Amino acid sequence: MRLFSVGAGASAERAPQEAAEHPSAPIPIVGPGIGESIRVPLGETGLETFPLMLGAAEFGWNVDLETSHGILDRYVEFGGNAVHTADGFSGGRSEHIIGQWLRSRGLRERTLLSVRIGAHADNPGLGSVNLVRAVEGSLTRLGVDRIDVLHLDATLDSTTNLEDTLATVEWLSDAGKVGAVGAFGFAPERLVEARILASAGYPRIQVIDAPYNLIRRQPFEGDLRLVAGAQSLAVTPSHALEHGFLSGRHRRKALTSQGVRGEQLRGHLNRRGIKILRALDQVADELSVPVAAVSIAWLLAQRTVAAPIVNTFATEHVDELMQGAGVTLSRAQLAELTRAGN
User: Fold this and answer.
1) Fewer CB near the last or first residue (10 Å), C or N of the chain?
2) According to the UniProt record, where is the region Disordered (predicted)?
3) Among 85, 90, 88, 94, which Cα is nearest to 65's?
4) Span 269-287, mean pLDDT?
5) Average pLDDT of span 197-219
6) Global pTM?
7) Domains of the chain, start order
8) Least confident range of 4-13, 59-68, 127-136, 149-158
9) Of 137, 68, 139, residue with least CA distance to 105
């Protein structure tokens, strides 16, 4: 196993073995300092990210402020620099929590902020007026003056004229409020339309956030991946661990949580899901790393994937997740994992 040898070519020296004896212990990095140890290009945006983005979907919902700040602190200790949230996460509370953390730690200039816009109840969709209001609302909650990557969320709005949306993004960009542009919930044909508009001078979509992991292979492994490759889009897969199933912690239906997430987890405990868990167990044993790290490593090995978005409930789980950025899977291991999910 090579630690921190990532497909994009980033690398860093590992400190002596005695410094990290347990597989889930922190992995010290010898380099210029915390937050500067390992970076990969975020497609053609000119931005650089740690190979894992920390998702904040649980902040303010299942994770309180103190625990959220602890998770963010732990992520940064490992050299992480990219945080992903959305205006619709916990009705905006996720953004409030991140904003408080940025101010209290003084880390705004060293943090890549990725924000998904379009699902907040007060400003839904991608119409020009709501888009401007949504961005202003997120900037206020985060306490910042600029969003580094603005993801346009089309899940609630696939009918608004894309030219109008991109014209509004251009205005926001010229005003210094938005950096790179990303997309969530865009059909392949809409991404093609966006690229045609970009050739006419509109802002170019450069990043896509798409649900994708070892058990949820479709619809990404189809036209969406072809378009992403053809347009050199950076892919930041959300649901990287499929609500925790690919961490290996949910193996019995009786022990899964209630509600929608519990139903999803129980739905994966079928023949295919168990086969995937067994393949993950085998590779994890071979490499002496957690199952979650292997799941992340499989994603990082996929074409067009730049940095998976990972969510967690507990500080100690960050240690397992971050190891995924340092696992190099052999061709045989990749093939076995991929076959298990077919």
Assistant:
1) C
2) 1-28
3) 94
4) 93
5) 96
6) 0.86
7) 13-237+305-314 (3.20.20.100)
8) 4-13
9) 68
